[in-house]
Amino acid sequence: TNTHSEDRTLTQGVLKTLASKLDDLSTCNELIGKHGAALQRSLSELEDLRGSTDSTDKVKAVNERATLFRITSNAMINACRDFVDVAESHSRRWQKALQHEREQRHHLEETIEQLAKQHNSLERAWRENPTSYTGETLSNDEAEFFDAMEDSPAFITVTATGNIAHNYFCECANHMQLRRTRRSRIPDKPNYSLNLWSIMKNCIGKDLSKIPMPVNFNEPLSMLQRLTEDLEYSELLDRAARCDSSLEQMCLVAAFSVSSYSTTVHRTAKPFNPLLGETYELDRLDEYGYRSICEQVSHHPPAAAHHVTSQRGWTLWQHITIDSKFRGKYISVVPLGNIHLQFHSSGNHYVWSKVTSTVHNIIVGKLWIDQSGDIDIVNTTTKDTCRLKFSPYSYFSREVPRKVTGVVEDREGTAHYILSGTWDDKMESAKIVDSSQGCGGSEGKQKTVYQTLPPKLLWKKYPLPENAENMHFFSSLALTLNEPEEGVAPTDSRLRPDQRLMEAGLWDEANSQKQRLEERQRLERKRRAQHRSSSCSELYFAGYQPLWFEKRTDETGDNIFIYKGGYWEAKERQDWSQCPQIF
């Protein structure tokens, strides 16, 4: 208490000093204005009296006023210097105090978690004693409480251990299978320096998909491969397919939607823009039971269609257009379009969209990425909903960085689960057993207090591979995405020469190949435009028709590109005669 009182007194004293210095600056500013105006008048009078006998007196008056102006200006400079010195000296003190508070908070959170785990262990030991066992139902005193979502409360979640939590989720054990050995490393990223601002300063407000960029700003994966990387935690969908409850299933779908951002926390480099007609397949039937196919269906605006079928009971598809703009200090990347997921046994059809990604510190400092916005997941079959809120990072916020919170509700709007976690680490769910109106929140709103069971872990991020910081911070799956594969289509991203050269560390050669491919694509686009104007055809995208996808209106009313079939059959026959030569 004494320490806090001393800090408060010191802070108040510093604020008074700064206020006094500001008064000095204001006074100096007024004097400079006054003496400057007088000096200007004297100069005007001197101009009028040029050659007269009074000029000597006037020159003397001008010199006096110039001297006063110089003295006042020096006083202003000294006052500014004093102000800056005071601010800088105490800024360092405040930074240290802030860092100390953060460390104390982190230590307190760890202590609380340890206490909670010890409490759980003691309670489990008591319950296992047959002489005092009275049942598993939690009393009101034992339950945890969470605020309603409208005021964006902070959740403190502790993973339940032992048998304390009810088994209200479907079985989530993962069965290890024999898997093909895939590569676990790629060549280290070369240490090339390049001034990002020197290129980006001419791109403010522009669509970045139309700006040629050297490979120095890329990572050796295409946007199609980045879309496919969303499947890294496909086992969440395998578990969801086995759920009997649509609400439990919604929790796992929500965790899957968050998990796709976990690999982006260190990935500030941009993926390669796919060429029109470029494809990417990922066949993981033997390991994970699914296979995926992507195709670039438009170049401007860049749009990709994606279709995944799993033998473990689900199908996923999406048609995503990327809108990326440079805003001066940051780049915003807005994916437009919906993701669709359908489970085979229940027919439950889920729809959601992605949040905005922002890359900060374009001008100066270390690049870092943030995710912000809301994801609204709707089960169009049962009308269950889940709104996930991605809290934007704030230096001054006390919230956990990269925080995600959400509530799962049924079609009547009744809340059943609280979701909480971070998009770069884990997500947990807590089943709601009761709710009540609490005290008033901000802006006069009344908070709803949810009484819940202990939280249950839904998803946890895999650790990055060893040496990941020198391999573009790729995850274990990302390291395998560009691994050469036999029998793929000639349009597959693995065969793109500039991307392959960049992965090998040959960036100069990669830039030459990139320029060649982009020029070839421009010429092909001109040829299609000329053909369209001469034939007066109305084919989509100036005569271009995607090979494996076609535009249709799906059952939810979206007009999107849907997989029309034929790719895997063509691969089986090794008949790629329809594929364009884009590389």
Automatic annotation (TrEMBL):
InterPro entries referenced in this protein's UniProt entry, alphabetically: OSBP_sf, Oxysterol-bd, Oxysterol-bd_CS
Location(s), subcellular: Membrane
Membrane topology recorded in Swiss-Prot or TrEMBL: Peripheral membrane protein
GO biological process assignments: lipid transport
Keywords on record: Coiled coil, Lipid transport, Lipid-binding, Membrane, Phosphoprotein, Transport
Coiled-coil stretches: 98-125
Any one GO cellular component localisation term in the record: plasma membrane
Any GO MF annotation of the entry: cholesterol binding
Coarse class of the protein's main subcellular location: membrane
SUPFAM superfamilies, per database record: Oxysterol-binding protein-like
Family assignment from sequence similarity: Belongs to the OSBP family.
Cited PANTHER family: OXYSTEROL-BINDING PROTEIN (PTHR10972:SF70), OXYSTEROL-BINDING PROTEIN-RELATED (PTHR10972)
Identification of the protein by name: Oxysterol-binding protein
